[in-house]
Each structure stands twice: as C-alpha cells, then as structure tokens.
Amino acid sequence: MKKEPLYLTIAQDIMEMIQNGTLRSGEQLMTEAQLCEKYHVSRMTANKALSALAAQGYISRTAGKGSFVLEPKVTKNIGTSGSSFSADMASVGKKAGAILMEYRVIRAEEAPLAAEQLRLEAQELLHYIFRIRTSNDVRIALSHTYIPCKYLPALDVTILEGSLYEYLNNTHQIYPIVLDHNFSALLPSKKQQELLQVDSCALLKSSHTSTIEPDLLFEYTETYYAGSRYTYHFSRTN
To answer: How many CB atoms lie within 10 A of CB 145?
Structure first.
C-alpha cells in the first residue's frame, strides 16, 4: 500500500486541530521551521503542507507575518430557489448581521445596470442600500441592493442592520422570490479589501433579481463575497 505523502499527514493533523477547536479562527500556526522540527521534514515539505491548507481555505498566509486560521467557510446551497443571507447563516447556526454603509434614494439613470435588470425608466426612483454582511461578527460580503420605490414607497432605515427580507415579510407582507443567480470571480479593490478586512483573496460576485406577485421585478442585488469565507454549492433537483 502506497504511503501517504508527509506533507498531507501534516496538513491533516492541522486540519483536525482546526475542526475540533484546538486551533481557533485568527490563531497563528507554527512556522515552517517549527513544523520541520516537530515532524522531522524538509522546509519544502512544510511549505507544501501549509500551501495545501491555504488552497482548501483553512488558513491564510501572509509574507513576513505567518499563517493564520481562517473563519470556517459558510456554504450556501442553490437548488430550485434562493434564500436570504440571514436564513443561510441561521441554517448553519451562525448569527447574521449587517453594517449599513450607505442608504439613499436615487434615480434609475444613476444605476444603469440595475435599471436594465429591473426594466425601469431613467427617472424612476430606487432605494439604494449598501451593506457589509457579517456572520458571527466576521465580515463575509459587500452587498448592493436596489428596490424600485413604486413597489416599496417607504423603507425603515433602522432595520437595515438586520434582515431586509424579514422586514419585508413581516411588515409589508412582501415575499421576494429569487429568479436566478449570475456568478463571476474577480480580485478585490483596495477599498473592498479594507471593508472586508482581508488581505489577498478572490471575490465571488453574485448578482440576482427577485420578483413578487404578479411577476413584478422587485429587487436587484450584487454581492461580493470573500472567497475564503463563503462558498456556493449547486444541486440539481428533478
């Protein structure tokens, strides 16, 4: 039987310590030199073990600083329907939150992509909401939401640091249904890195429109997820 490569043994040991809570989010791992001493391996083997953990999203590596345990990823399952960020967090036992960065009423011409997706005329009014979404107070995503004022004339801004969908459901009896998701990967800008409090990681951009009865385009949202903290899982149902 072929023996498992040493770097995978080291990576598995560290992975188990992360999973059982021995190593917690934000804690610094052993240096390559310390791993070499503990496991009696070469520097190259230690480096491969850390690289494998980083590739799987368990740790982040910063030159000159070291390797640190990442917050466990949240996985969103996409099947035949979508669910809100707050519902996703609740489903995995985490507390969703939001930091309101900006709210204003704009004209559709100021947000041409949103206007196109929602089929609005240039002078129609939109609620524009920009929030940082959090999971157990860890910054997960940047969310830009557009809602036509003609379908939601008034909006209680005080609820925007909580669940928008819960507010819509309970206060206005509005139940948006997500039509579809579009995805793309991109590198973060300096500003996005600062807001998400990440160093270097890819962003997963998700955009969707939602509808309300009778087939009215109600919402357009673009969300930029930190790839090291959030992932999507697609499942096909019959």
So the answer is: 20
